[in-house]
Amino acid sequence: MQDILFDFISKYISLTDDEKNALLSLDLFHSVKKGTVLLKEGQKSKDSYFVLKGCMRKYYIIDGEEKTTAFYTEMEVLTPHCVISKTPSEYYISCLEDTILTISNTDMEAEVNSKFPKFESMCRLLSEEISAKQQIDFDEFKTSSPEQRYMNLLQARPDLIQRVPQQQLASFLGIKPQSLSRLRARIFEKKS
Amino acid sequence: MQDILFDFISKYISLTDDEKNALLSLDLFHSVKKGTVLLKEGQKSKDSYFVLKGCMRKYYIIDGEEKTTAFYTEMEVLTPHCVISKTPSEYYISCLEDTILTISNTDMEAEVNSKFPKFESMCRLLSEEISAKQQIDFDEFKTSSPEQRYMNLLQARPDLIQRVPQQQLASFLGIKPQSLSRLRARIFEKKS
DNA sequence: ATAACCCGTTCACTTAAGTTAAGAAATTCA
DNA sequence: TGAATTTCTTAACTTAAGTGAACGGGTTAT
After folding, report:
1. Which residues pair with B101 in a beta bridge?
2. Which of A86, B42, B50, B166 has its CA 20 to 30 A from that of A55?
3. Which domains, from first to last, does chain B contain?
4. Model pLDDT for residues A111-146, shown as the tens digit of each residue
5. Is the pTM of the predicted complex or chain greater than 0.70?
């Protein structure tokens, strides 16, 4: 499990054994049961997550309805908005499946960053990369219809369509569950 | 003009006069005429921008149509995706108004970052902040109707509605210009 | 085992966005 | 200034998403 983390890090910087041990001493690894809510609306938190195995989702509750806006699966990093802005969270984070992840908090990161400046480089690279990818995702969302978005998802993340309930997928695509059903039927129609 | 940059930086780190002079020696400041295209589709670039005065837009050309997905105004930073991914750009960046901005490239940044580690901290903080803000914007987009998005924009960035042509605003809101016209008429109707 | 509940699908209906086209208003340019 | 072009609006029509309700399959709980 640790190797997954180190492999991930090695995409950005190379670590000495000393640095690896420093990381391991931090007790980062956690196993979380399906359904666990890691962050709630209104809560203040300093925790960031890195998914080693499993799936997490971000959702809002708006007018009593859950609106899922993001999923995080293997090898993905999530730093909630409230961690950066230091304000109460506007949304929930929960585990869709039994999930193994690392949990790190801002204080730990600050300490590691000051001890090993290399880490700060990694964090910068990583957040630039995430930010750039998000830009593209957002642009793609804006410039496509719901049907195109679904077709895109089918290409880009076919696993999600399998492992995620339809109603959550629907709001992820910016539509209602009934519309997703209909849209899927329409696509299936076209194929034949 | 330089003070705007230094004020901006001071939100993240504090600079010595030495550091300020090092920055000033880099010839960052540029004045760009309305309509100038700074980045084209297919082009590789290492340049990032910081808008001091004016407005820039990002747009795609899809099936011969311009699709505007973002605007950058005073005090906003833009690092195009292609700079991070080191691939040809999928989109265009152009100036909507006469614009004063700083242009910096990855090589310069790498040099400054290694000379003054403080800068790397700032870059990390900044890109974390941008990334977090983007997340929220994207979530808001997904969970709202076009009409709500327009009302939001009216609240959050009333200046944009004044300074940006309707057709560009429309695709920024994920709809067609005709729909935006209609939607505006609908809202105006409701008010009276 | 049966009732209660949750989920996905389907249907009929409403509402709003896409499309095509035309005209009015504003801007550009000669 | 006046012609040309572009931009914005309006309208009629088409298509797709939102809404409310009902149905069936599957799971959970009692």
Report:
1. B30, B51
2. A86
3. 2-117 (2.60.120.10)
4. 999 989 899 999 999 999 999 999 999 999 999 999
5. yes
